[in-house]
Write a structure and sequence with these properties.
The protein is an alpha/beta fold. Helix content is about 45%, strand content about 15%. The chain has 11 helices and 11 strands. The protein has helices spanning about 15-35, 60-70, 85-100, 115-120, 125-140, 175-185, 195-210, 230-250, 265-275, 280-285, 305-315, and strands at about 5, 40-45, 75-80, 105-110, 145-150, 150-155, 165-170, 190, 225, 275-280, 295. The strands form 2 sheets. It has a 9-stranded parallel beta sheet. The chain has a two-stranded antiparallel sheet with strand order 5-6.
Length: about 325
C-alpha cells in the first residue's frame, strides 16, 4: 500500500543556475525512486519572488514528476488561486490529469503574502472574490460544456480524465475558506490541525445541502529527515533546516495558522522544538500510523545527503511497514 509523502520545494539560497538545475533533476530522480518503492505522494507548493529559489511554478514541476513516474500521486499544496488565470489553470490541470491518468491533486489556497499579489498586479483586497471566481470557473470548465465567463460564453477542452473532475480541495485556516469549500461541495484542507474549523465546515455543508470531507493535518506533522546518526546530521546540516524554518516563519503573521510553524532562532532550538526532526529508521517506523512527510532536500541540503535520507526511508522503513 502506498505510504508517506516526499516534499519538494527546491529551496537553495546559495544556488547557481547550474546547481539549481542539478537539484531539480535530482528531485525528479528521487520522485521516480520513491515511486518504485511504494511512496504514496510527492508534494510541492508555490511561492514567488523569494531570495532562496522557492519553487514558483508547481504545475510545471508536477508535470515533470508525473511524466517520470507511474503510480505516485502529486499534490500541489497549495496553489495560490487568485494569482492564476482561471481558464488557463483549468486547461493546465485538465492536461496533467489526462497525462497522469488522474494522479494530480490540487489544493487551492489564497496565500498569505501581500508581496506576491503586488508583484503579480493582483489586488490583495479582492483575493476572496477572485478565489470564488477561480473555483467556480474550474468546476464549470471541466464539464467540457459552454458556460458564462466574464460576460461571454466560453468552453474549455479537453475534458479531464477524472470524473466528475480532477481532485480539487480548498485550503485555508479561516471560516471563509471553510464556507467556500462547503458551498461548492469541495473537500476542505485546513492548513493546520483545526477540529473546530472542521466542525464548522461540516455544519456549512449541511446548511448548503452539499457533501464533503476534510483532509486535516495531524496535531503533530513534523518534517522528517532520516539518518543513522542524527547528532552528526544536525551538526553538519542543521543550518539548512533552520534556514527554511526562519524563512517560513518570517512570512507568517499571528493570524496565519500552519501545521509547519517554528519559533526557533537557532539550530539547537529547532532540534528541541520538534517541527523539523532528524530520526533514525527505527524512530521513523515508530511514528506510524501517521503518514510521515519526508523532506529530503530541505533548505538547500546537499543532494547526496538528501539521497541518503530517502534511501533509508525506502529501504529501511517501508519494508517494515508492509
Amino acid at each position: 500500500m502506498p505510504f508517506g509523502v516526499v516534499r519538494f520545494n527546491l529551496v537553495d539560497p546559495r544556488a547557481t543556475p547550474a546547481s539549481l538545475s542539478g537539484r531539480y533533476r535530482a528531485a525528479l530522480a528521487m520522485a521516480a525512486y520513491a515511486d518504485g518503492h511504494g511512496v504514496g505522494t510527492v508534494q510541492t507548493e508555490e511561492h514567488h519572488g523569494t531570495g532562496n529559489n522557492w519553487i514558483p511554478s508547481p504545475f510545471t514541476f508536477a508535470g515533470a514528476v508525473l511524466g517520470a513516474t507511474e503510480r505516485i500521486s502529486v499534490t500541489v499544496s497549495a496553489v495560490i488561486g487568485p494569482l492564476h488565470d482561471p481558464l488557463r489553470l483549468a486547461e493546465d490541470i485538465a492536461v496533467l490529469d489526462l497525462l497522469s491518468g488522474g494522479r494530480l491533486v490540487t489544493v487551492a489556497g489564497i496565500g498569505y503574502r501581500p508581496e506576491e499579489y503586488e508583484r503579480h498586479g493582483v489586488p490583495w483586497g479582492r483575493r476572496g472574490a477572485l478565489q470564488d471566481e477561480l473555483l467556480e470557473t474550474l468546476l464549470a470548465a471541466w464539464t467540457g460544456e459552454p458556460f458564462p465567463y466574464r460576460g461571454r460564453t466560453v468552453r474549455v477542452t479537453p475534458r479531464p480524465f477524472t470524473r466528475p473532475h480532477p481532485l480539487l480541495l480548498v485550503g485555508g485556516s479561516s471560516r471563509a475558506a471553510a464556507r467556500r469549500a462547503a458551498r461548492l461541495g469541495l473537500p476542505f484542507f485546513p492548513s493546520a490541525h483545526l477540529p473546530d474549523l472542521d466542525a464548522y465546515y461540516r455544519e456549512r455543508c449541511a446548511e448548503y445541502g452539499t457533501e464533503g470531507w476534510t483532509m486535516m493535518p495531524a496535531a503533530e506533522t513534523p518534517l522528517l529527515h532520516l539518518s543513522e546518526d542524527p547528532d552528526r546530521t544536525w551538526a553538519e546540516h542543521g543550518e539548512h533546516f533552520l534556514h527554511e524554518a526562519l524563512t517560513y516563519a518570517s512570512w507568517q503573521s499571528k493570524d496565519v495558522r500552519s501545521a509547519v510553524r517554528s519559533a526557533a532562532t537557532t539550530v539547537a532550538e529547532l532540534r528541541a522544538e520538534g517541527v523539523y526532526r532528524v530520526v533514525t529508521p527505527g524512530e521513523c517506523v515508530a511514528l506510524a500510523p501517521e503518514s510521515p512527510v519526508l523532506h529530503p532536500l530541505c533548505g538547500g541540503i546537499p543532494v547526496e545527503e538528501g539521497w541518503r535520507s530517502l534511501r533509508l526511508f525506502c529501504e529501511e522503513v517501508l519494508p517494515r511497514l508492509g
